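User: Teach me something about this protein's shape.
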Amino acid sequence: MAEHLKLDNSERLYKEAQELIPGGMMGIRRPYNFVPGEYPIFFDSARGGKVTDADGNEYLDMLCAYGPIIIGHREKEIDKAVIDQIKNKGFCMSIVQEIQNTLAKKVISIVPSAEKVVFAKTGSDATTLATRIARSFTGKNKIVRCGYHGWHDWCVENKGGVLPKTFEDTLEFEYNGLQQLEDLLKAHGHDVAGIIITPLGHPNAHEVEMPKPGFLEGVKKLSEQYGAVLVFDEIRTGFRVSLGGAQKLFGVTPHMSVFGKAMANGYEISMVAGRKDIMDVLISKAFVSSTYFNNTLAMAASLKTIEMLERDNILEVIAKRGHSFCKKVRKYVKASGVPCTFTGEPWMPYITFDKDETGAYKKTRVNFYSQLIRRKVFLQPYHHGYVCYRHSPKDLNYAADMIAESLEEAGKAA
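Assistant: First, the predicted structure itself:
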């Protein structure tokens, strides 16, 4: 059995952080989202496909900052593009810089739904702006959603501090639940402004799902039947499953889509992309503005990231390595006899543990992820992982072998 990691400095920093910041850090990065006492709480540095914690332990980083790291940490070409922008142009000005147009033209050329775009900073910015655009364009009120779309009032899971009136016009359906969506639209379709859905199913703490045959096509057909704007939330799938996103991969073009995460390999940028007539409500009918949305460092990073993705066929390499890795993991999962499920091939690998009436699966989950982190593979119990370009075949073989060892140990303890 692997030894417990030395985490003294991480724990010290966490204790200090709790005196300074509510909970020590925000939301999903808090220790209870991992395995308290087993996982590091503070990282110190990162390079390529690996991260080093505050105590000097180095891990294979398969969480990739929850998705932004599509190539690798501290990519020299990308960082140089940002540094050049700082040194030669500057990045925070009262009006926009030309690089805005350059990036817009680039993404419009590769994203099927993009006729016009608006840049923002976070995924929550983009999804919330998309709902505003949909409401302004249609003159309707309700939004039908499927998936995680951020922390803003209309969609946040934890309703603490949120006025009921801010989410009473948000309706939900389950991924691949086409009949459920149709039933909602039959009841509320006259007032539905938009349908926002993750084109790949990845609800938090649940298995990753591929669309059933006809599901995405059916969603689009229903949206048009009821005069609703269809929005694909491609925050996780964009610039990962293909350059044009899941909409390109699956051949279904929404009326609008939102992107972020892998778009700039860790630099803070997101965007709303859509049909011209829909997007043009922002000319005067609806409003969006931010001091920092037009800052150009992330735009420079995004242009260079996209250039590298295209030039080096990076997404094809990731998919190929991901399939090979996932094939091994599926074999190990089956051989282990542990009641768990492996999903997310090839981009978002995730091992979940099958629920039972006694709740024993929770103990098995803790044991598995404790063993895995001791073997220096950084994944998260309640969120799928990612494969990035700097994960070499050797790295991924190691990760698969450590998953096998961890499953064996978890099975013994069950």
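Now, about its shape. The chain is about 40% helix and 15% strand. The chain has a mean pLDDT of 97. If you'd like, I can walk through any region in more detail.
User: That's plenty for now, thanks!
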